[in-house]
Amino acid sequence: MENKYAIGIDIGGTNIRAAIVSDKGEIIKKIKEKSSGDIIHAIHKSVENLFNENIAGIGFAVAGLIDYQKGSVLISPNLPSIEGEDFVNKLSARFNLPVIIENDANAAAYGELCAGAGRNYSDFVLLTLGTGIGGGIIYNKKLMNVSAEIGHMSINSEGKKCLCGNYGCLESYASARAIISSAIAFLENGRKSILRDWNNNYKKITAEEIFRAAKDGDLLSIEVFKNAGKFLGIGISNIINILSPEAVILTGGLTGAWDIYVKEAITIASERALTYLFKRTKIIKSELTDDAGIIGAAGLVFNRQV
Ligand SMILES: [Zn+2]
Asked: Are strands 5-11 and 99-103 parallel, antiparallel or unpaired?
C-alpha cells in the first residue's frame, strides 16, 4: 500500500517547524526545534523525531534561492549557515526516501492549493507580506518552478535602494521593514504621533505598534500604512496584468492590517490594473497562515514522487 503521509519542514530564521502531514494536507503531528546553533543537526533531529515506516518522503520549505539540481540553498539572507549544505541528498540516502526542497513562499502557495484558500482555483499568486515580501505562483493547479521573487519587482526607477542591490523594489515600500523605516523617518522629521508616547526609543517601534496607533486614529501611522498599501496595490496590478490569475492570496503578519493596508492596495489595484482582468481576480486572505509552508512542502512530496 502506498504511504499516505509525508514530513513537511519549514526552516525559519528562529525555528524549525516540522509535521507529519497526510496526503489530504492534514497535520497529524507537529514539532518545533530552535534553528540557532547547529542547524543541520536540528534538521536531522526534526526528521528523526517524526520518522516512521508510513512516511512517503520529506519536503523542506526554506527562505531563499534554491538550487533545484543540487537540492541545496543557494542564498538565504536569514540562514546563511544553510547555504550550500547538502542535507537533502544525505537525508534521502539515509532514510531511502525522496526529499525535496522548495522556497518557503512557493511551498506556502502549494500548501494553500492543497488545503487552503487556493483549493478552488487553478491559477493564483500568493504574496507573503512580512519583514520582506515573497511570492509563489500556481498555474493550472501546479506550482511554477520559478523564483517568483515578487518583492523585488522594481516599482520606482529612482527609488530607495533595496537589500538586493536594486532600486525601488516593492519590498522597499510595502513590507513591514519599509513601514517601520518610513514611520521612523517621519518621527525624525518631528511629525506628531502617539508613537512617541508609546515607545521611549521610537527607533525600536514595531509594525504592530504602528498598526495599533493607526487603528487609534494616529494620522502618521495611517499615512504610513496607506502609503505602503498604495505600493502593494501597484505590485498587485502588475501581477494581474502579467499573469491574470483567478486570485491573489495574501498571507503574513501584515494581513492583520487588512482594513487599512490591504484595502488601500485593492483600491489602487482596481484603478491601475486592466479593468477586465481586475474584475476576474479575487484578492483574498490565506487560510493556512503559518502552516502553509509545512503543508505545501509535504504536498510536493506526493506531487513529485514517481
Ligand atoms: Zn530588491
From this structure: unpaired
Tell how far the Cα of 163 is from the centroid of ligand 1, in angstroms: 6
Shared domain for 166 and 75, answered yes or no, is: no
Q: How far is the CA of 165 from the centre of ligand 1 (A)?
A: 6
pTM (2 decimals)?
0.94
Cβ pair 7, 294 in contact under 8 A:
no
pLDDT computed for residue 35 by the predictor: 80
Tell me, in angstroms, the distance from the centre of ligand 1 to residue 76's CA.
Answer: 14
- Classified as helix, coil or strand, 148 is coil
Q: What CATH number did the domain enclosing 177 receive?
A: 3.30.420.40
Do 147 and 228 reside in the same domain of the chain?
yes
- Residue pair 305/28 in contact (Cβ under 8 Å)? The answer is no
Element (H, E) at 11: strand 5-11
Quote the pLDDT of residue 166: 94
Q: Which domain holds residue 63?
A: 5-112+290-304
Are residues 263 and 248 located together in one domain of the fold? yes
- How many folded domains does the chain comprise? 2
In the sheet with 133-139, reading across from the earlier edge strand, the strands are 142-143, 133-139, 124-129, 247-251, 282-285
Low-confidence stretches of the chain (pLDDT < 70) are 1, 305-306
Q: Based on the domain organization, do 74 and 33 belong to the same domain?
A: yes
- 151 alpha carbon – ligand 1 mean position (Å): 7
Tell me how far the alpha carbon of residue 166 lies from the centroid of ligand 1, in angstroms. Answer: 5
Ligand 1 centroid to Cα of residue 250, in Å, is 19
Q: What is the CA(94)–ligand 1 centre distance, in A? A: 38
pLDDT of residue 126: 98
pLDDT digits (tens, 9 = 90+) for 216-261: 999 999 999 999 999 999 999 999 999 999 999 999 999 999 999 9
Do residues 45 and 136 both lie within one domain? Answer: no
> What is the pLDDT at residue 1?
46
Same domain, 249 and 140: yes
Task: Tell me, yes or no, whether 204 and 181 share the same domain.
Answer: yes
Tell me the CA–centroid distance for residue 179 and ligand 1, in Å: 15
